[in-house]
Amino acid sequence: MRLWKRKKHGIENPEVIDIISLTPDSDVIEIHMVQTVEWGGKGDQVLLIQDKLNAYLNFLLSGQLAEQAPAHAELPWRIVLFCQSEPPLEVRDFVEKAAPVAAESGGEFTWRMTSAAADS
What we know:
Elements: E1 19-22, E2 29-34, H1 45-61, H2 64-68, E3 77-83, H3 89-104, E4 108-113, H4 115-119
Parallel strand pairs: 2-3, 3-4
Antiparallel strand pairs: 1-2
Helix pairs in contact: 1-3
């Protein structure tokens, strides 16, 4: 019998923080949103990413990160859209236009290919 249902991660679910990590030199907290659908597939990916970004900004600015990781609460933060394949132009444009919003909130917003995707 299953007592709980695990929530699906990825850009399709803004209620879930996909990955929180420290950069290798431990000076930046990265909060990753993961591409879990093919670009151009079902739904409007830009709207999915926008919803996820808003949820991540709320998570950061409401103090939830500080509650979960108080030892790292004062570190700078970066939200990263982790892509399994090259994002289309409209996604890259959205990230470029949304990056100043993250900067005004005290952090960064960017995209990056996953290491597996970059190696192929």
